[in-house]
Write a structure and sequence with these properties.
The complex is a heterodimer.
Chain A (H helix, E strand, L loop, with lengths): L37 E3 L2 E3 L9 E3 L2 E3 L2 E3 L14 H12 L9 E14 L5 E16 L1
Antiparallel strand pairs in A: 1-5, 2-4, 3-6, 6-7
Chain B lengths: L22 H15 L16 H19 L5 H8 L9 H9 L2 E6 L16 E3 L10 E12 L10 E11 L7 E11 L4 E6 L1 H9 L7 E7 L4 E2 L18 E8 L9
Antiparallel strand pairs in B: 1-9, 2-7, 3-6, 3-9, 4-5, 4-7, 7-8
The chains are: A mainly beta, B alpha+beta.
Chain lengths: 138, 266
């Protein structure tokens, strides 16, 4: 899936009365859903790795990944922490020193894998944190 | 374990942009995933006839149960466990086994390493031997449940009207010139005509073998008629090497991790 970023967004800062630094929150529109932090699809295929002779199941799994921007205003669909909301505002005021929050996984799930070992014994094991279920701004 | 991206033909959903990995990319992916799985190298199993025997089929049933639970995110899938177990025998639909499956971090099945059933002289007892290689169990895994599973078909006509006594023993010590020293684990009375999977609890024995591998001398089963006559496992209807692949005896163990493993950096 594609993730086109808005390269034409105007980030130039203007001096403000009252000593505030950086553009005001009102200068920003609501975040474009396509560029905002969200989950993207990514499929890992065991079959494509040539492992179908020893991995019985699954043939692959949807790992997914998180990508996108965490910029003001952080909308509800971005699953932002309260701290991230504050950090976006601070970044607006002080972009050189305070970075934007990170877009990362907020919910990860396990998968079970069934496979043979060298002795033809069969193992069924659960592996944690293999699948991104939800992304958010931290 | 999620297959929600597959369509009815089990093909990857067309919304994915599919790019073939280059050779070095494939190698890198393989290395990283093997590292996540905790494997030093890619396994090279030997499958008889290229088909699955009873142990992989049983494990695949377990996998499908767990995967559907992960997908549906529904707790208390007792009904699913029970419906799965009816294909393997009603005795398996126990609350304890469902709990073990729910709590287990890992389940392993083990193939019997003994090639030939033992037929002894009339002066000694018929018995069938089982040996399992437990050396590949990762460190830090504690056995929470363990079973020996045997498939019994209808006994031959000679003993068809009898009740049989099937005994499972742990081999304690082997002797070159006489019978091994045995420890009785369980005895069970069966109808000669009875058919289906038989499960024997060998948790204590499995724990001993994991903790002290030099004690892993295997198991023996013996069958007697109600009159005390020793009969072979074949006469009793117990499926061995020459039986159907889907009825081969195997051992299954449920594990819970008892310590945290730190993955080493590459």
């Amino acid at each position: 899936s594609t993730n086109k970023r808005n390269k034409n967004r105007n980030r130039a800062t203007q001096p403000q009365e009252g000593g505030s630094r950086g553009p005001s929150p009102a200068d920003y529109n609501s975040s474009d859903h396509n560029t905002a932090c969200r989950r993207h699809e990514l499929y890992v295929s065991f079959r494509e790795l040539g492992w179908q002779d020893w991995i019985i199941a699954p043939e692959g799994y949807a790992a997914n990944y998180c990508g996108g921007e965490c910029v003001f205003p952080l909308n509800a669909h971005m699953n932002a922490t309260n701290h991230a909301i504050v950090q976006t505002l601070v970044h607006l005021m002080n972009p050189e020193n305070v970075p934007k929050p990170c877009c990362a996984a907020t919910k990860l799930h396990a998968i079970s894998v069934l496979y043979f070992d060298d002795n033809s014994n069969v193992i069924l094991k659960k592996y944690k944190n293999m699948v991104v279920r939800a992304c958010g701004c931290h | 374990g999620s297959n929600y991206l597959f369509d009815g033909n089990n093909e990857v959903h067309p919304s994915f942009i599919h790019r073939r990995l280059r050779t070095h990319e494939k190698r890198e992916m393989q290395k990283e995933i093997l590292s996540i799985l905790g494997l030093p190298h890619r396994p090279r199993p030997h499958l008889s006839h290229g088909k699955y025997n009873s142990a992989p089929l049983f494990m695949l049933d377990l996998y499908n149960t767990i995967s559907s639970e992960e997908k549906n995110e529904v707790e208390g899938m007792l009904e699913q466990y029970q419906s799965m177990y009816t294909t393997q025998g009603p005795r398996l639909a126990k609350h304890q086994e469902n709990a073990f499956l729910n709590d287990a971090d890992m389940v392993m099945s083990f193939v019997n390493l003994v090639e030939y059933d033992r037929e002894l002289s009339p002066h000694r007892m018929h018995h069938k031997e089982f040996k399992f290689n437990l050396s590949q169990i990762p460190e830090g895994e504690a056995v929470t449940a363990s079973e020996l599973r045997l498939y019994k078909e209808c006994a031959n006509q000679v003993v068809i009207n009898e009740t049989l006594l099937l005994s499972v023993y742990q081999v304690v010590q082997e002797h070159p010139n006489r019978e091994a020293d045995l420890f009785l684990l369980e005895s069970r009375r069966l109808w000669a005509a009875e058919e289906g999977w038989l499960e024997f609890d060998i948790l204590a024995t499995s724990n001993l073998w994991v903790m002290s591998p030099h004690y892993n001398l295997g198991l023996q089963i013996r069958v007697e008629t109600s009159s005390g006559r020793s009969i072979s496992s074949k006469e009793a209807g117990l499926v061995g090497r020459d039986g159907g692949l889907e009825k081969q005896p195997f051992m299954v163990a449920f594990f819970k991790v008892s310590e945290v493993h730190i993955r080493t950096a590459r």
